Amino acid sequence: MDKVILFLLKRKVILYLCTFLIVLTGIGALFSFNVELVPKTNLPWIEVNISGGALPPEEMVEKVTKKIEQELKSVAGIKSFSSKTGTGFSGISILAEDGEGEKVKQETQNIVNRLRNEFPKVVDTVTVTQTNLGDEDLIDYAMVGADTQTMLTLLKTTIKDRIESVPGVKEVVVSEDGFENKVAITFRPERLTAYRTTAADVVGQLQGANWKKAVGILENPGFDTVVMIDNSLKNVEEFKAILIKTPKGKVALEQLATVSDLRGSVKDAISMTEGNLFVQISVKRAAGSDLITTQKKVEEVVRQINDEAGGNYELRVMFESVSFIKKAITNLSRDVVIGGILAILVLWVFLRNWRVTMVIATTLPLSILMTFIALKAAGYNIDMVVLISLSLSIGLIVDAAIVVLESIYHLREKGMQLKQAIVQGSKEVIAPVFASQLTLIIVFLPLVVADFEQWLKPILHTIAFTVTSTILASTIAAFLFVPIFSERFLQHDKQLQTRSEKGKNRVASLFQRLLLLTLRHRILTLLVALAVFVGALSLFPLIKIGNGLNANENQIFATLTMPDGTSLDQARTAAVDAEKALRELSDVNQVFFTAKKETVELNITLVTKSQRTQEKEEFMQEVNGRLNAIDGVEQTSMTFGFSGKSAPIELQIAGEDLEVSRSISTKIEEMLGSIPGVVNIRNDFERGKEKVTLTPNQEAMSQLQVDSDSLDSQISVLLGEQPLSTISQNGIETSIVARFPETWVTHPDQLQQIMIRTETGSQVPLHELVDFHFSKSPITIKHEKGEQIITVSAELLGTDMGTVGRQINEKLGTVELPAGYKIEIAGDLKEQNNTFTQGIIVLVAVVSLIYVIMVAQFGRLSQPFIIMLSLPMALVGVILGFVVTQRTFGEMAMIGLVMLVGIVVSNAILLIDRINLLRSRGMGLEEAIVQGTRDRVRPVIMTKLTAILGMLPMGLAVAEGAELEAPLATGVIAGLIFHTLVTLVLVPVLYSIFEGLREKRLARKKAHRIADL
Angle at CA 701, nearest 5°, toward 696 and 707? Predict the structure, then answer.
């Protein structure tokens, strides 16, 4: 190494040129990054969604879900799968093995395509998608002001086209599920009877009345002419005039039925905000497009559309994450800068020499720029996780540079020539610095390979790559740039011994007196340390434990569940009351709701974090209380951060008989209700609907000459909507359907009396052909690995998952279960258990790897063991930090704890290496311990303070993005503060005990050998 340094000292222009290239390339990389919320990564989650018609859950399970599940069992690369089936839909979630996502998705697509023809005919939508982290959602708008048909027409034509023309926009999706897009032909039963015809006959004629086809080609020399017959219908009036053949002659359709244009009318959901109906559109961005730039262009187009509307309609922002991302990225960027400035100030305060401070300060931007180059080369973008990683690294970047420069500076203070001090000082610390830097890097290996939850792995990989790149860059800067910059900045410094010696001596003397005291009372010191550790462990239950990352803290999604039989109007009234109650809160910015029969979905946008008057927990309790106070609301559920997230508490009951599982779920609900802080308890069977099953009486059907196909088609026409054809206007396809009036059959007694035509033309009541069976059907049927389950869910207010999880585990043992039934913890609670299990495994692996590195560094087993014994004291700081701040200990805190292990051992390595060096030069054990600690006081405190202050802005948690970064910073800062004292006191005491015993043992062996002679 000394030859390399001497070469660079002679050829400084090479290093200056490298510096210029790093600055130029790093700045270029910085300005070429796209901005994201979180790293975009395809995850091994595959979703299969199948929908269409109104088949009951049991039928969808048998005819769709089970068929796909059976095939999935034979697909290699699938870790697990689950399903959720309801009326007219089936959703299957598949978790693939790592690296098998694309393959499993393709095989699943092949299975679905192969089975498609076996699905019921009413199934019209089948999709297979792979989930990704950092999705394509850009911004959602709500159009208000005009009638819904006009708004739908505008959105699906001109507005959709204009927004999709914006560079970076992939597509615009218009949410029209809550609105009708059909022309309904509603039969008049008394008119059908009068004309002695049936609905089935009319439907058959209508299905053949709207057509267009090519009938031939006229061939001529040089050109051909296609001949077409166009019998398609263009508008509603033409449908009314269709002539229908009946036993009494031809009659216009409008004499037999009412033809209604229902386009744009409310179907089964009402979406409103501030008393206005709205239509929602979602803007998706193209892959590779910049989030902020694309949304800015979309907003400009929308501004033009609103200006052109002249107040007739308006597009309002309903949901977007860019404003949150911009604030979060700005805040994190500010944290990086402030952390860097604080780190430099620490150096100046300790060194009181601007020249020395400038040497280290130059390594900070150089290391960050080299990190940007590495991130760009690896295909990363700027996101919250990258910036958190940089904030975490700010204080660590200068660690190696401080140690190298302090070693050089220490020799200069003793009067050594500058060039000799640079070579000798760098040479003395190269081995321990490399070992300490390697410990910071090696901690990420177990983190990356551990079996954490799939959504967490991309975040871990990003943190690992960013911090590793930063540490490697800082190591390069410490050994290549610091020596050269030292030669440049320090050659004219003539007051080395007077500028910092006084400050250094005061700090060193303080720790020297403390060290001498503890060395005189070594056993007492160890007992005190043990007592502190045991005392800290007793505080562990006071830590709030949870998981899940609320990446966007400005959004709340809530669902209100109404009693069975609640009408759409009643649900809308409750939704209006909820909106009014929420808008009274100063922290609420906008409220949009969609009311359906028996449910209301609320999208609540909050003001920015700096404008809020309530803490998150207090605000959530306020919202929950107001929503539960709405008349007619049975249950409330809320998620903070993003929609679609499962409840934090989920318990799954597995068994074949749903009624038995339902009774078990009631016991589970009662058990959860007895736990403080568990609210909004519900199960997915409780919302069951009454069901009537018709079983054909084969003997009666044979006698009355009615076959099964005829019975099925006639009942379908009488009860459901029959698709006839479509018409197209302005490029929008509209369905034509036939149906009976909704009030014609509303009760099972009426259903029993409907007339069925036999093969002879006579009619018989339905109850003479089938047997009626009444039961209850769940809205959804869930399967986990093919096994039927019911899920009991709940949320938390004023408590944490760790506390609740412990009580659930205790109480589950008291629930009696019939044979063949079981209860399993699922959802976030299961993730938490897995995360902590993997976290413990990772910590053990990290400690083992660091121990191996230290054994290689010191060449013996005992001295690394001394450092290992000091590690539990860092845990004391972590526990105290989370108890005092009452922040949630989750995934990010776990990452911080693992990193903390690598950080705290680095200075312990440098300290023991210094003591060993002094002993190798002939110094006695105690003298070497005292002098080595005195020599390392300044660099240890400097490196720890720069790390602490570099992360301090993250730990303060005062703005957007804080929920993601604060737990990580809290653990590291608290652990570093406590372990710094441990490094300078407990490690020397342990070293004294272990090495003292070793010297005595060696002395006895030597005495025995002399005696033998």
Answer: 90
Per-residue DSSP letters for 764-784?
EEGGGTEEEEEEEE-SEEEEE
Beta strands in 866-910 (DSSP E): 888-889
Residue scoring higher pLDDT (50 or 341)? 50
Q: Over the Cα atoms of the chain, what is R_g?
A: 37
Quick: pLDDT tens for 830-877.
888 888 888 888 888 888 888 888 888 788 888 888 888 888 888 888
Question: Between helices 801-812 and 827-858, what is the axis angle to 10°?
Answer: 110
**Nearest residue to 579 (alpha-carbon basis) of 620, 623, 637:** 623
Report the pLDDT value the prediction gives residue 864, as an integer from 0 to 100.
86
Per-residue pLDDT, 469: 92
Q: How far apart are CA 856 and CA 835, in angstroms?
A: 31
- Strand (E) positions, 491-647? 544-545, 555-561, 588-596, 599-606, 635-640
Predicted pLDDT of residue 314: 92
Pairing state between β 732-739 and 182-187: parallel
Question: What does the alpha-carbon distance between residue 866 and residue 994 come to, in Å, rounded to a whole number?
Answer: 8
Average model confidence (pLDDT) across the chain: 83
287 has a pLDDT exceeding 80? no
**Amino acid present at 934:** R
> Residue 1004: exposed, middle, or buried by beta-carbon count in 10 A (0-12, 13-18, 19+)?
exposed
SS3 163: helix
Residues 6+ apart with CB under 8 A from 190: none
**Section 113-129 average pLDDT:** 86
What is the reported pTM? Answer: 0.76
* Residue reference for tokens 């590291």: 972
Rounded to 5 degrees, φ, ψ at 383 are -145, 180
As a whole number of angstroms, the distance between CA 297 and CA 304 comes to 11
Under DSSP, the state recorded for 144 is E
Q: Alpha helices, DSSP H only, in 286-383? A: 291-309, 322-351, 354-377
Tell me how far apart the alpha carbons of residues 806 and 890 are, in angstroms, rounded to a whole number: 16
Q: Are 200 and 717 in contact (CB under 8 A)?
A: yes
Give every CB contact of residue 161 below 8 A, 6+ residues apart in sequence: none
pLDDT of residue 499: 46
Q: How far is CA 9 from CA 266, 423, 494, 506, 777, in A?
A: 79, 10, 20, 35, 83
User: How remote is the C-alpha of 53 from its chain's centroid?
Assistant: 33
Q: Give the 3-state secondary structure of residue 871.
A: helix
Mean pLDDT of 640-663: 76
Buried b (16+ CB within 10 A) or exposed e, 572-605: bbbbbbbbebbeebebbebbbbbbbebbbbbbbb
For strand 243-246 and strand 822-826, is the pairing parallel, antiparallel, or unpaired? unpaired
Report how far apart, in Å, the C-alpha atoms of 803 and of each of 631, 651, 809, 909 are. Answer: 32, 16, 10, 38
Amino acid at 105: K
| Distance, CA of 540 to CA of 902 (rounded, Å) | 22
| Helix (H/G/I), strand (E/B), else coil: 234 | coil
Closest alpha carbon to 403 in 12, 913, 926, 902: 913
Cβ 858 vs Cβ 688: under 8 Å: no
Burial class (CB in 10 A: 0-12, 13-18, 19+), 379: exposed
Alpha helices in 735-826 (DSSP H): 748-753, 801-812
Non-local (6+) Cβ contacts of 890 within 8 A are: 545, 546, 547, 548, 549, 832, 835, 967
CB 272 within 8 A of CB 318: no
Joined tokens for residue 176: 């029209």
Q: How many CB atoms lie within 10 A of CB 377?
A: 11
What the block records as the tokens of 542 is 């006071």
Q: Look up residue 432 and give its two tokens.
A: 């321990």
CA dihedral 140, 146, 152, 155 (to 10 degrees): -50
CA-based angle 6:8:12, to the nearest 5? 130
Across the strands, what pairs with 596? Answer: 269, 599
